[in-house]
User: What shape does this take?
Amino acid sequence: MRKTQVDTEFESPIPIKGICHNDFQEVAENFAKNFVSYGEIGSSVCVVVDGETVVDLWSGYKNEERTDEWDKNTLSVAFSSTKAALALCAHLLIDREELNPKEKVTKYWPEYGKKGKEDTKVEMLLNHTAGLPALKTRVEKEGFLDWDYMVKLLENEEPFWIPGEETGYHMMTTGWLIGEVIRRISGKSLGSFFNDEIRKPYNLDYWIGLPESEDKRVAKIIPFTSSSSDKPSGFAKSFREDPNSMQRLSLTNTGGYDYNSKATYRAELGGIGGITNARSLAGMFAPLAQNNEKLLSKGLVKRLSKPNVKSNIDKMLLFPTNFSEGFMLHMDNRDSFEGEGGSFIIGPNAFGHVGFGGSSATFADPDCKMSFGYLVNKLGGEYLINERGQSLINASYNSIN
Assistant: This one.
């Protein structure tokens, strides 16, 4: 395919930079519209088809004051899209037969087998049925930044339900749960394992534990501000009304977690703390979209496309969810979930992840050999993807078809 400099018919108030193949102009147009229709501040999007980059766009600013331009090398926090990188690390070990998802966690991490967690299987950590979507024990100040401290907390925590019997999205805790298993097997921290096995071999601008040398490249996250006219979701109602709910605990019992802190950048937060750009989100998934066995075996990629657990109501998110082992699959809740952000509409065999507040999205679709990455610094109030990101996903599918 011949790449061309982007030239959209839509008149954007700020310049859209990068490249876009002629066939993918709809993606560029929707990307530009986001800055007008949704007040986007800074963003990047990348689409790779059969190993070739057909869209690589960026625009806007790295800060709310709009004084620092978002450029080609800008990074941002990927929030829960980091879970895709985390799951890939686990599946590298699964592919090498060093990790068996059907085994009990205690085979690899003996100290985990306490307080009703003795029979928890590795698969349950991957598919959000392990029963630890939040922590009831108070997390000390900056506790999220101390790996060993968090591991001890999880070892001694009682689950919210009998592991394996319910599904509840493990918003924060999954990074330590899966990451510690990876550490026990590999002898490396999660960030080091990811760095050696995925970041360096695929030349990605992606870190779980950012070096200080990269700090200046990182965009500041701009929090969501709710409106009194917003109709609260089930999650929001539970958060507001029950101080002991897993919804409240998951977001507030964090030891003062600050996503814009440089100390947080250093921490290896495998569930929420990856720092990257859209180019690297798409690049990480490109070998899986091609299913060329460079990263994972064909059989394992096929398995990741299939549901491992589907819930009618996820106990954390309070709407239906659909997970394979560590990845989100197609979820269309538009008819059952009031408001925006309860869906992730991708191909029937695609798999990936989204980030909190519509901050990010990434997936691989082996059916059309497409991988996708999207990253912003302005958070919305959504739990899955929002219209900003979904419009780009839809445009990518329309363009390839």
